[in-house]
Amino acid sequence: MSQGEAAGRGTAKPQDQGWAWMVLLAAVVLQGLTLGFPCCIGIFFTDLQHEFQASNSETSWFPSIMVAVLHGGGPLCSILVKRFGCRFVVMLGGLLSGLGMVSSSFCKSISQLYLTAGLITGLGSCFSFQAGVTVLGYYFVRWRTLANAVASTGVSLGFTLWPLLSQFLLDEMGWRNTFLIFGGILLNCCVCGAIMRPIQLASGSLPQSAKPEEEPGSRAEEAQLSNGASPHHPTLQQHTKRTKCFQVLQKYLAFDIFCQNKGYQIYTIGVTWMMMGFALPHVYLVPYAIHNGVEERKAALLISIIGFINIFIRPLTGLLSGHRVFTGRRIYLFSLAVLLCGLSNFICVISAEFSVLILYCVILSIAMSGVGALTFQVLMDVVEMDRFSSALGLFTILESTTLLIGPPLTGLLVDITSDFHYVFYTSSFFLISAALFMGLSFCALEKKNKLREASKAHLDNPSRYQYSEMSTEPKAVSQSPPAVEYITSI
């Protein structure tokens, strides 16, 4: 059953009111359960190392796989949403997340954790999160921006509560029983999905959007048939399969936009490079603090401080960036936030005292709020909305690749040097270089576009004057009105 069929079975409900606010509440909880969950994994880092006798690099693969799959599973989630609907995909994600964490509590090796907690839980979180965000677009029209901003506060709540709960359960019953309880908590994604009832869409909206995607394949098939080829001919079948594969790739992975749109190209490369260092503090901050003598409970509190400040700063950042003054300039705010993230890492290098680490968390949280609030908003600024979903697919897959390899490579560096300072040096290098690359590249692109527009405007005026002169010529000379009409009609 497709999304359109699923939606059609639902009753027509008024948007932006009534049950829509219950769906928004479910989306807040959903984002706290999914996006907020990986932040607590660093609390178990030392225990998992001792349990499995693993190195920093081997242990860091576990959260890296989880976060990479969480971000990179978007295209697969989009396919499932179109086929089965948002409600089903959210509940499927909750089931996978719970199953993955329950299975993790019985793991006998660190490699088994890669499959259970990393792949299965990460994929389930991806399904629940992205389908939950999608359903908000059906329930909210007028208040859609507000709804997305409110839903994103769930991430901050998750960042605040998950570390505190994790440290409490770890002290009381160990990591295995804690993972078992986490499996039960993540099953609540199914409850959130049950609240997200299908809503009736505008009649014919989905079939119309599907027609252009089917036309190239049907036209190719008609061309082959007109040449006498049988519809079951092997050559025709192979050609049709290739055409359909190309359509799927173009829909969910916008390589054509990447090649043609310079703004999207710069932004995607910059964010992909940035993600090599962005997740490192989340993975290594707690082990770094414990390694330098900070009590485990206080070390876990550091992540909660980041999340607590995010609750208040992220909505303010979203409101500020939405002001018309920043229209077309949000990329510079984003670059500034990334730059601040990179510079803040040097605080940890100076000292590992608890008071200094609190200062670091405050500054990092403010910068992270800007990055989190602007990441997708900037993407909407550089890509047309009718191709946003496909641009988002390529964007998330590329950034998930660097999210996957960043922490393990840094962990290998720490294993070789036995110095946690290299975590923050590495993070600062990637963040600062990415911020400078994006800011300077967009500045140069903006200047180039202004020069192009100025030269185009300069050339347009003479051409218009020449056209007016030609229109005063005798009728005998200009005998091509059909051609003129044809050109203007195109």
UniProtKB/TrEMBL annotation:
CC annotations in GO: basolateral plasma membrane
Protein name, UniProt field: MOT6 protein
Species this protein is from: Nesospiza acunhae
Gene3D superfamilies (alphabetical): MFS general substrate transporter like domains
InterPro entries: MFS, MFS_dom, MFS_trans_sf, Proton-linked_MCT
Keywords linked to the UniProt accession: Membrane, Transmembrane, Transmembrane helix
Transmembrane segments: 21-45, 61-81, 88-106, 112-139, 146-165, 177-196, 266-287, 299-319, 331-351, 357-379, 391-410, 422-445
Residue numbers spanned by region Disordered: 206-238
Cell location: Membrane
